[in-house]
Amino acid sequence: MSKRINVNDLDVYYSDFLAVEGVNMTIEPRTVTAFIGPSGCGKSTFLRTLNRMHEVIPGAHVDGEVYIDGDNLYAPGVDPVSVRRQVGMVFQRANPFPTMSIRDNVLAGVRLNSKRMSKSDADDLVETSLKGANLWNEVKDRLHLPGSGLSGGQQQRLCIARAIAVAPDILLMDEPCSALDPISTLAIEDLIEELKREYTIVIVTHNMQQATRVSDKTAFFNIAGTGKPGKLIEYDDTATIFTKPSVQATEDYVSGRFG
Amino acid sequence: MKSLQDDRVGTGSSQRPGSPNKGAGTARVKARPADRIFRFLSTGSAGLIMVILAGVALFLIIKAGPAIVANWSTTTDLSGGTTHGFSSFWAYVGPLIWGTLFSALIALVLGAPVAIGIALFISHYAPRRLAGVLGYLVDLLAAVPSVVFGLWGIFVIRPFLIPFQDWLNQYLGWIPLFSGPVSRTGSTMLAGGVVLAVMILPIITSISREIFLQTPRLHEEAALALGSTKWEMVKLAVFPYARSGIVSATLLGLGRALGETMAIALIMSPSLVFSVQMITDTRNSQTIAANIALNFPESNDLQRDGLIATGLALFVISFGVNFIARLVIARTGGPRRAKKSARLTPASDATSLLTADAAESPVSIRSEQAARDAEAGDERTELAAEQNEDR
């Protein structure tokens, strides 16, 4: 299930503007990797290149390679749609489909593959996905109600359930807790800890405590100035990054001297 | 008490109680003359529209009265000419109402899917530049005078449809809609319906396009991130969001089709019958508006009152359709707005704005914008126009 990500000298462009430059990185399966760095340093942009979601913005393109267990995402003929089925994504703000019930939200991704599914299979998948997202006990009696009626934290876990229902290899999370209260954040962080057993997880966060709590490895991105491309400054074990980083800028950032 | 005072001085809640300004603020503000004049003008304009609407309704009712109550078979003014052979006003207006609804329905069935397709192409498929041009062209279509459409119908659409009508009759003639004898001139209900369909395209397209453009970026990305194709994304995120908008756009299109005169009057050879036949010369159900236009010159006073009475019927039908359209917008717009504002709690909004990556900002800004647009609800039109620019 879980797969390794290899990034080879990746540049990301928005039309002519170079947003992220020269990223090299290997992300091991069954680990949590946190991306930290100041706003605008390109970490979300880079995260999106891992499932080609950056292509949603007209003019965005990359130069370089991203391998997922040896398959280049950017090889000619690779369909971004199939990439996104392998690499799930959870967004900053919970985005369940507002007109769909909780159950239909969980099944939305699976139904896309236009797979015929018996009701009992669907029921099982809904249950395992919601249990996987630690949401089952809270919603099992109201699966037919709209997902938008849940609290923010519950909606975010519903989105996670929706993402894992399609059985991806990798789960990308773009600041999944930034719109949540501490209790809901804790619930998501616990969930990440559990999901790690089955998925490769990459999480963008602005909360450095969160990075230390959930991640095995941390990547620090920085930007030299406005209009300059973002760069990967340092990538190492989380403990190393936060205690004895090898680059001064990283130390300044994690110790709160800037950013 | 405090709030009352605040309201009166027009400072609202922005003024804190006990702030030193309060004493000065409570003094009545003197209205300036320009301000007063402008308020009078705009209030007057608003009042005028009520007066006009009421005036039209009153005119229709008063003029229609005599024809509605008259016995059409015994009144000499009504028993001959264009109104010959009808026992009462209701027997006269019945087929006309049917023809009006039927032609509008044909236009809707033919036009609405195309219009929604165009709207979707402009909002989600076309390259930005082409989308702009196309949107402009569609709006331009709305500016073509209906008499021009009518002429185009006579000289282009009628002959163009004749072979197609033959084909329909040959293979689908067993369906009453396409039963013969097939028209040789092409002056059929179908031809009228096709032209009507073209005429209602712009209104349905522009309203749907605006609503498609407002689909929250969040939902589109949710669908795409699940591995949906573009079309699946449209089905998952765009259509559910836009459903009420599509319905109301279609109803407004229906309203336009109902009241359209020239296309039908010029193209169709009409009869006052209840008929579902679409491709004959003799059994095309006449519409109210075309009937008024064609018969008015050769009518006597009472017959004109009869025509005005049919106009009243059309007024009521159009009013009803537009009312339902507004109702659909209001009903489905309400809860969505409430939901949005519930989600946009100040905390989450501020955080997300602060934390948004600058490089990623096109996305965030788009989604924020979309969220705000949806909240605004009533201001859809203007905002969507702006958004169209940046697509």
Instruction: Tell me the helix content of chain A.
Output: 25-40%
Output the number of helix runs of chain B.
Answer: 16
Largest sheet of chain B: 2 strands, parallel
Q: CA-to-CA gap between the ends of chain B? A: 49 Å
Biggest sheet details of chain A? 10 strands, mixed
In spatial order, strands of the major sheet of chain A run 5-4-1-2-10-9-3-8-7-6
Order of helices and strands of chain B: HHHHHHHHHHHEEHHHHH
SSE order of chain A in H/E notation? EEEHEEHEHHHHEHEHEEHH
- Structural class of chain A, please? alpha/beta
Distance between the termini of chain A: 36 Å
List the quaternary state of the chains: heterodimer
- Strand adjacency order, main sheet of chain B: 1-2
Structural shape of chain B: flat
- Overall residue-averaged pLDDT value of chain B: 75
Helix content of chain B: over 70%
Counting DSSP E segments of at least 2 residues, the number of strands of chain B comes to: 2
Largest interface (CB within 8 Å) is between:
A-B, 49 and 38 residues
Explain what you see:
The complex is a heterodimer of chains A (259) and B (391). Chain A is of the alpha/beta class. In chain A, 35% of the residues lie in helices and 25% in strands. In chain A, strands 5-4-1-2-10-9-3-8-7-6 form a ten-stranded mixed β-sheet, sandwiched between helices. In chain A, a hairpin with a 2-residue loop joins strand 4 and strand 5. In chain A, helix 3 (102-112) packs parallel to helix 6 (152-165) and helix 6 (152-165) packs parallel to helix 7. The longest helix of chain A is centred in the middle third of the chain and has 14 residues, at 119-132. Chain A is globular and about 55 Å long. The mean pLDDT of chain A is 86. Chain B is mostly helical and 391 residues long. Helices cover 74% and strands 1% of the residues of chain B. Chain B contains 16 helices and two strands. Chain B has helices at residues 2-9, 22-25, 33-69, 76-79, 89-125, 128-141, 146-172, 189-213, 217-225, 230-259, 262-267, 288-295, 301-343, 346-355, 361-376, 380-390; strands at residues 270-271, 284-285. The longest helix of chain B has 43 residues, at 301-343.
